[in-house]
Amino acid sequence: MEDKGIILVVDDTPASLKLLTNLLKEEGYKVRSAINGELALHSAAGNPPELILLDICMPEMDGYEVCRRLKHQADTHNVPVIFVSAVTDTDEKVKGFELGAVDFVTKPYQREELLARVRTHLEVNRLRNRLEELVDERTGKLVESEKKLRAGLLDFIAAMAATVEMRDPYTAGHQRRVANLAVAIGRELPLAEDQLEGLHLAGVVHDVGKIPVPAEILSMPRRLSEIEFNLIKEHSKTGYEIMKSIDFPWPISQAILQHHERLDGSGYPQGLKGRDILLEAKILAVADVVEAMASHRPYRPGLGIAAALEEIENNSGVLYDSAVASVCLKLFRQLGYQLPA
């Protein structure tokens, strides 16, 4: 029988606990139940599950405190937590993400939506664990096995990228196109082939941190509010947290963390300036802006390549690295480069 995963369900309301437990069991998951925070922590510490569905409003110890304690324990630090709660306030959801939760499902939930999010996060967690195994294996192999192991890394990176695009169909292909343009820029600079390989992988998953962002925000057909945009801005840090434990031979997690930094310090999340920003992140920043401006978004039509290149040209040396910007402009205006379909 297929091992679909072990899930810990935590809810202080017996009826809700039974409903969610039975729903998951019907789908073939192994389910453990806890009716309060203390029991949940004891169950998770003794035998960590692969995923935790956690209520927030519970007596004595609420879901936020349970999540905080889980993330401070070595055995449960990497176990993904999904809050399942009637809480609807955006600030409360942001608080949950800041404590380390990967997603938020609002009660009353739709059965299919809940199951889809459970499947997604179990898959991402298993992919990440498998990636760690592959990287560990790679370091212990002889040189002749390196190509095979790199192919495995590429396959799993592609699977993680596909998971992001399933959550955000409006930007399907965005990461792939950014990676393609980033490598083209890197090759013209020029970078070494090994560095280009790392740059490509970073580009393919630079938005992996958007997985926990609610789908309704990703596909909002209007401009986001300040609170909603601040939630989106967490994706670079979330992507870093997802990838940082994997010992890549390239600075992929740092490139993901820094791809929204800007030369003048106006970027996020750290407000880095100039030389403090990785070259790979500077390249991804330019490629990301060009692709995003040229392409359709839920709240606006595509602005076109000309507008995107004007943005890069006008802010070269201010927001964007001048050498990277110059090569990008040259690719489109002189060398006939086009974004992939």
Polypeptide structure, described:
- By secondary structure, the protein is an alpha/beta fold.
- The protein folds into two domains: 6-109, 3-Layer(aba) Sandwich (Rossmann fold); 170-333, Hypothetical protein af1432 (Orthogonal Bundle).
- Strand 4, helix 4 and strand 5 form a beta-alpha-beta unit.
- Helix 7 packs across helix 15 and helix 8 (193-204) packs across helix 12 (252-258).
- Helix content is 55%, strand content 7%.
- It has helices at residues 14-26, 37-46, 63-71, 90-98, 111-140, 146-167, 174-188, 193-204, 215-218, 226-233, 235-243, 252-258, 279-294, 305-314, 322-333, and strands at residues 6-10, 30-34, 51-54, 81-85, 103-106.
- It has a five-stranded parallel beta sheet with strand order 2-1-3-4-5, with helices on both faces.
